[in-house]
Structures are given as C-alpha cells and as structure tokens.
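Re: the 271-residue chain
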Amino acid sequence: MWTHKAWQARWQTGPDRLRAYASRCTAVEGNTTFYATPTSETVASWARQTGPDFRFVVKLPRTVTHERRLAGADAELGAFLRAIEPLGPRTHAVWVQLPGSFGPPDVGVLASFLRRLPTAHRYAVEVRHPDFFTSPGAARLLEEALAVVAAEWVPFDTTAFFRHPPTSDAERDAWTRKPRLPLRTTALTDRPIVRYLGRDADEDTIAGWLPWVDVVVGWLREGRSPTVFVHTPDDARAPDLARRFHDDVRVRVPDLAPLPDPIETAPLTLF
C-alpha cells in the first residue's frame, strides 16, 4: 500500500516510500504479497525503512489461500515464510485471507492448516462466507479452530460503505468488488486487527467509524493492542484519516502514544 500513486504525488519522493509512510502510520497491510512472494532482499529493504516496533500484517499468497485452498501448497508456503524472515519482530501477523467460497464445511481444512504452521508467527484469518456472520454455529466452529493456535479473526467492516449508493467511479468500482457482510466486533486475542472501509467523503468515513472508536477504546482498556486499518474507495487520504482515527481514540485513552510526526519528503512550494 505504501506505493499508492496519490500518496507519491503529495508526500513521497525517492526510493524510500515506505520510510515516508512509516512516519505517518505505525502499521501497514502487506497486500502485494498476495500476488507474488517478494525476494528476501526486497523484504530486507522494508525492514531497513521501518523501526522494530512497526507492524506488518502480511497476506499469504493467493496460490496458498485461493488456488490451493490451504491444501498441497507446502512449497509455496515455505518460500513465503522464508522470504519474510528479514522483517523479524515487525511481522505482527501473517494474514490468511480466504475466498468467499470458503465456508463452514471447510473449517476442518483451515484448522489442519493452522496447526501445521510454525509457532514463530502470530496468525490472523479473514473469512468472507456469509454463514460465518449469520450462523452462530458456524461462527463458533471457526472461533474454536482459531483458538487452538491463538489466531485472530479479522473483520472487514464495509457496513458504512454500503449504507448509500456509490457517487464516484472509485465508489462504483469498490461497490462491485468489496464483500457485503454483517458487522463483527469481537476480539479473540490480545492483538485484534480491524479493516474498515469508508467513503470518498471524509465526513461519511468518520461518521461510519464512530462505533469502532468505542470498541477500540474498550480493547485498550482491557489491555489489548489493536491494529486498525482505515480505507476509502480511492485511498487517497487514508493515511490522514488513519491518523484522525488514532486521535479520536487518544482523546478517550490519553495514555495511548501519539503517532510519529510525519517526515516531509515532498519539496516545499509557495503555492
């Protein structure tokens, strides 16, 4: 995400784009790893641009999750885990995003897969089959499978986005691609992860995340350490909005550390 074109135009110059991003936010979704496993040299450059407390939530390759559906992909999985080794403690969680067709009958496959994973990492699973959200039995089945290895269930909250019809090309594109699922706000571990999708308009994005402020404040007071990713259809202002969300939470939890002061890498102009 840190190579987003809109961000480069505003505040990213030169090769160290991740360093500029890391001066604004303290976590990132490693979404590109879904499409191709990076080289260890590339991952080492990510580590050099971030501090040891920076959080990477890195997505497993689609070969493992979507094409092989967690079965018979040991070689691809091993190559991925070796590639991310240079991140060290920065690997906050390995993100297992499953396709919408992966439903309750497949939980046994997921459970077996999770049990075979190395214990050196934490794991977070995102499911998109509606039965996990509408059937208490299916939800319980999934939670039991995750609990065996202390894996987290990652909600992708699109409820605010789907509240009103799209009004822009970016919103129309997201309307056809993003999952439409019920809201889930339950944490299973001490490190919950939330993905939130707002709208093009900042005020709509902010209004939609208000319930999450309450949830995250509650988690912090319980001693948990949540990670929240804020998206919009075009993501142009997502880092600024993520900082705003953090500020809103910090009003309620003053002991929460502030985010870093951004590095201004873009040249200053008079206009």
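The beta strands are 27-30, 55-59, 91-97, 123-126, 152-153, 156-157, 193-197, 227-231.
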